[in-house]
Amino acid sequence: MSQAYSQVVKTAQDYYNSDDADNFYFHIWGGQDIHIGSYESADEDIAIASERTVTHMAEQLHGLNADTRAIDIGAGYGGAARRLAGSRGCHVSCLNLSEAQNARNRALTQAAGLSDRLEVIDGSFEAIPFPANHFNLAWSQDALLHSGQRARVLAEVDRVLTPGGEFIFTDPMQADNCPEGVLQPVLERIHLETLGSFGFYRQQAERLGWEEVRVTDLTPQLLTHYSRVRQELANRRDELRDKVSEAYIERMIQGLGHWVDAAYNGYLAWGILHFRKPR
């Protein structure tokens, strides 16, 4: 990775490239969709709930077709990108920093017969490797938190969007009224100093001149999701031993507990944020 990328991004890249993390996220977190789910019950299958989040986001987007150029920043295993390419015919560029995740994405995309409509690019969303005014749609799910330079990421999104282009995303955030210092156990697990917030993203959108299309606060889903992932990891601990190290499993159970506690105490937030660049 280029030295132009921040140390926070490099740390995230190293983490997601590890065999432990790759196998944990693919086998436990949700398979093709490794982001927060939208649950209809507390014990619902993680993959089904995670796919439902993609559905809720896609339902907000109108007029997508084969002429639409979309970018998924922090695309993970590309589940959402394949949905957009397969159901709407969009051409989607998946930008993601983990070569391990990208390899799975390419294999899943080829198996789905979508390689002509979906490309996978190794890189960081802090320096999007595309020219200005290139995409009609930018999409991201639970990835922006991994940048220590979120304002720069949003400026990059603004640069590559066409006039009238839309940006829809989710991100684990701190509550707007979060007390100072209480999130330290959460931040230490992901090697960050801060999280974004609804207020932060709205402020940045206003700075960029974006129109707010819709902001949907779905914070209760964050507590459900982290509780569900922690439970699933504990329940399937034995079957994972040949894929994920015991030390990683133990650290993850402890780390997920910090997220559950913070969410329960009202310190965290999550939802769908949808903005439009002016024409």
Number of helices: 10
> Strand portion, in percent?
15-25%
Known CATH architecture:
3-Layer(aba) Sandwich
CATH-assigned fold name: Rossmann fold
Number of domains: 1
Radius of gyration: 18 Å
How would you characterize the largest beta sheet? 7 strands, mixed
Principal-axes geometry comes out as: globular
> Can you count the beta strands?
9
User: What is the residue-mean pLDDT, rounded to a whole number?
Assistant: 92
Uncertain runs: none
CATH top level? Alpha Beta
The H/E string reads HHHEHEHEEHEEHHEHHEE
Task: Give an account of the 3D structure.
The protein is α/β, with parallel strands linked by helices and 279 residues long. It has a single domain, classed as Vaccinia Virus protein VP39 (Rossmann fold, 3-Layer(aba) Sandwich). It has helices at 7-17, 19-29, 46-58, 79-88, 99-111, 150-160, 184-189, 198-208, 219-235, 246-264; strands at 69-73, 91-96, 118-122, 135-141, 161-170, 173-174, 211-217, 268-269, 271-276. α6 links the parallel β4 (135-141) and β5. The longest helix is centred in the last third of the chain and has 19 residues, at 246-264.
Can you summarize this structure?
Strands 3-2-1-4-5-9-7 form a 7-stranded mixed sheet, sandwiched between helices. A two-stranded antiparallel sheet has the order 6-8.
How are the secondary structure elements laid out?
Elements: H1 7-17, H2 19-29, H3 46-58, E1 69-73, H4 79-88, E2 91-96, H5 99-111, E3 118-122, E4 135-141, H6 150-160, E5 161-170, E6 173-174, H7 184-189, H8 198-208, E7 211-217, H9 219-235, H10 246-264, E8 268-269, E9 271-276
Parallel strand pairs: 1-2, 1-4, 2-3, 4-5
Antiparallel strand pairs: 5-9, 6-8, 7-9
Helix pairs in contact: 9-10
